[in-house]
Design a protein that fits this description.
Oligomer: single chain
Mean pLDDT: 93
CATH class: Alpha Beta
Strand order of the largest sheet: 1-2-4-3-5-7-6-11-12-10-8-9
Low-confidence stretches: 1-17
Number of helices: 13
Strand content: 5-15%
CATH superfamily: Amidase signature (AS) domain
Order of helices and strands: EHHEHEHEHEHEEHEHEHHHEHEEH
Length: about 475
């Protein structure tokens, strides 16, 4: 059962809340040691949402009764010796374009404002089977398209680091909720950067897995040949633990690949000596915010000091990847939304409506040419992995956009994420510094197909050596 987000409940005992900040592994140890119960953790999450989310607007729906019921089951199982793995008893949220049985799933659109799916997406079923506790559904850009709309029933999600700024998107609520400490982790979707952009803007670890690594069954599509789902969390280890649960072949999901799923977290180490990393500096040196250029260059130097071999590398121009991605995704978006946008265009926000309708102007020839260009770009990019184990770029080329209605569509400048969506490669974003104004800066690490393990290992090593992930936005706690 679900309820719409409200903000009027009292918080649980303050002694319970700090456990929420320990990450999935730390929370799991506390649960198994009897230091805290899953029910108390769930209550603490709900209380934090009531306290902190006004003004951030990360949640659309809180599934309070559902969450508490699952928490009590988790407590009973843990007490009886049943252990479903690292997510057992762990609260999480999910982007509102991921189907959840019996819980409203709107894709942040009037078109689906009252939609309640009968079944859950495969990724939700996998986390449920692992004992995870869905707290609620987080806001996103409408149908994961374009940017935050001002003409929808819900307010724009704000960035917990500075509420005058946006948290990135399209998994905007996922990023804001985790950064604000409302939940330890979240499931988002990524077609061109929708996990990585909010992770970059909110100072989080966020992973886009290889295309086909994670089922997209039950995820409302943005673009058929780009969509995937993945984790946003405070640490690389938490992303690894979540990926272990949601990854794997699904015969019901078109494009799903039958590849073994490693024990990602168990394989994490802090040794990257001898790994060869290609720094794609020509993509960002002349276009990114100067503070981002400096932070990413310093991150590369730090990885070199940890034993990696760093070399600047030239790939195809960033603009070629972006143009290819935009042409394909616009055509696919129009195919997805054609019936409803013709029948009820006024129910779409202006920004996504405009973007989706441009797909009607593309011909079959345009789409085929773009897909052929995509194949060529992928082929040339993959050739570099004969020499390199991973590639480095900024997670995003600009700092978090201001929440300014006059600014128009945000986050469209030099998207470093799109090349690894075009090529289908795994890509991880992690914090690598903060601007002089206090906004997060991020590093992106991309690897070979299905080699999420190496990407996570590099990110984990850097994270542990620098500690940028330990910073938190400040909140004034509300008294009971």
């Amino acid at each position: 059962m679900m309820i719409t987000a409200q903000h009027d409940r009292a918080k649980p005992p303050a002694t319970e809340a700090p456990v929420l900040d320990r990450g999935i592994a730390g929370i799991g140890r506390a649960l198994r040691a009897g230091e805290v119960s899953a029910e108390a953790l769930t209550q603490a999450c709900i209380a934090r949402i009531r306290e902190r989310d006004p003004g951030i607007f990360s949640f659309l729906t809180i599934a309070e009764e559902h969450a508490l019921s699952r928490a009590r089951i988790a407590d009973e199982e843990i007490a009886s010796g049943i252990d479903r793995g690292p997510l057992h008893g762990i609260p999480f949220s999910a982007k509102d374009n991921i189907d959840t049985a019996g819980i409203r799933t709107t894709s942040n659109s009037r078109v689906h404002a009252e939609r309640v799916p009968a079944t859950s997406a495969a990724v939700i079923e996998r986390v449920n089977a692992a004992g995870g506790i869905l707290i609620g559904k987080t806001a996103c850009w409408e149908f994961a398209v374009t940017g935050p709309s001002l003409d929808l029933p819900w307010p724009m999600t704000r960035n917990p680091w500075n509420r005058d700024h946006l948290p990135g998107g399209s998994s905007s609520g996922c990023g804001a909720a985790v950064a604000a400490g409302l939940v330890p982790c979240s499931l988002g979707t990524d077609s061109g950067g929708s996990i990585r952009f909010p992770s970059a803007s909110c100072g989080l670890a966020g992973l886009k897995p290889t295309y086909g690594r994670v089922s997209r069954s039950g995820v409302y599509p943005h673009g058929y040949t780009f969509d995937t789902a993945g984790p946003l969390a405070r640490t690389v280890e938490d992303c690894a633990l979540m990926l272990e649960v949601v990854a794997g072949h699904d015969p019901e999901s078109i494009g799903s690949i039958d590849e073994p799923v490693p024990r990602y977290a168990a394989a994490l180490s802090e040794d990257i000596r001898g790994l060869r990393l290609g720094l794609v500096r020509h993509w960002y040196a002349d276009v990114a915010d100067p503070e981002i250029v400096k932070a990413v260059d310093e991150a590369a130097e730090r990885l070199a000091s940890l034993g990696a071999e760093i070399e600047e590398i030239a790939l195809d121009p960033l603009e070629d990847f972006v143009a290819t991605k935009v042409a394909i995704s616009h055509a696919e978006m129009f195919a997805i939304h054609e019936r409803e946008i013709k029948a009820r265009p006024g129910d779409f926000g202006k920004l996504p409506r405009t973007r989706i309708m441009t797909g009607a102007l593309l011909s079959a020839q345009d789409y085929v040419r773009a897909q052929r260009q995509r194949s060529e770009l992928a082929k040339r990019t993959m050739a570099h992995f004969d020499r390199f184990d991973a590639l480095l770029t900024p997670g995003w080329a600009t700092l978090a956009d201001r929440a300014d209605p006059a600014a128009g569509s945000p986050g469209q400048k030099h998207p470093m994420t799109m090349p690894f969506s075009v090529t289908g490669l795994p890509a991880l974003v992690i914090p690598c510094g903060f601007s002089s104004s206090g906004l997060p800066i991020s590093l992106q690490i991309a690897g070979r197909p299905f080699d999420e393990a190496s990407v996570l290992r590099i990110g984990h090593t850097y994270e542990r050596a620098t500690g940028w992930h330990l910073r938190r936005p400040s909140f004034q706690e509300v008294s009971p």
